[in-house]
Design a protein that fits this description.
Elements: H1 8-19, E1 35-39, E2 45-50, E3 53-64, E4 75-82, H2 97-111, E5 122-124, E6 128-140, H3 145-159, E7 161-162, E8 165-168, E9 171-174, E10 183-184, E11 192-199, E12 204-207, H4 211-216, E13 219-225, E14 231-237, H5 244-278, H6 284-289, H7 308-318, E15 329-330, E16 338-339, H8 352-375, H9 393-402, H10 404-422
Length: 423
Amino acid sequence: MKETPLSNCERRFLLRAIEEKKRLDGRQTYDYRSIRISFGTDYGCCIVELGKTRVLGQVSCELVSPKLNRATEGILFFNLELSQMAAPAFEPSRQSDLLVKLNRLLERCLRNSKCIDTESLCVVAGEKVWQIRVDLHLLNHDGNIIDAASIAAIVALCHFRRPDVSVQGNEVTLYTPEERDPVPLSIHHMPICASFAFFQQGTYLLVDPNEREERVMDGLLVIAMNKHREICTIQSSGGIMLLKDQVLRCTKIAGVKVAEITELIQKALENDRKVRKEGGKCGFAESIANQRITAFKMEKAPIDTSDVGEKAEEIIAEAEPPSEVVCNPVLRTPGTAQVGEGIENSWGDLGDSEKEDEDGDSDEAAVLDGLKMDTGIEISNHGNQDAPIVLSDSEEEEMIILDPDKYMKKNTNHQHKTSSSAK
């Protein structure tokens, strides 16, 4: 699945904000996102959160044969995985160019910088050495993967403990954690990567770019450094030309940021060591319960609920009592009643139907009178509505033309009366 490209409007908006020294998350130009470190129940397992970018680190060890050209040195192996859980654009079936570049950068940063004493991993020269494997899984992608991965890798290595061994002749004895305490790794220094994004051909610079800022950047400079300001590796990508002053400025910024991150890592390791020594709860389950693991955590404001009962009583006492409302029946018309303040009946009074019948009869009489005045036809109705209407042939035709319904009604009633009298 290909990555969804940014629209032109969004791209112009991001570049315009960078020109005005503004960022979407409210940070300044040289600010890092918040870093959170949590440890699992086992040694060597940790989760590092750099803003919303989250990386899981796990360290494992195994006794293997050493390399032929390095018979007295252990083996250090790094493996970074980009799953579709982190971002839909990642394809797990094959290694992308981004994944290959990140793995090589991690190896140069941690293994080639000799941050771990590999000779201390040797058990029997030329026969048995420790192979340390660091697996990194990207859980959520929001930019700057290399910085989060380097922090997770060094934290997992510092937190890891390998089993203790003893050698008697050619026999190697491996002890469980219950028999002997595990042994930590010998770490000389802690190299950490710091990323710098350049925009407008190097005119503007941002530290720790997020995912959207990485889409519009022209180039990226990664500097791996330890707290002693020793540069472990430098890598530039994007095809931009940087001046010497720009690189020197980035190294000074990286020295400050790496020192702060190293101090944070040491505090996290020390706190975890104290908790395990005191026998307290530790692990991801405890971190989830305390909301230390989620990257979408919202800070809760402290609320004092000690005097809630007293305040509630004061509010009730000061409030006015509700007015007593008695619903009396309302007689709209005889035979009906209404309770409450509802809408008046739209059907009107019950006598309206009788009035309509009377109005219908008067209308019928008015029609007949009008017919008499217009045609000069004399209608004889001796007090009986069912009496026949005596009309001549010409008058009958005019009657049918002027009011056919009235004529048919009278004619039908007359025929009905005649058939009844004949029977």
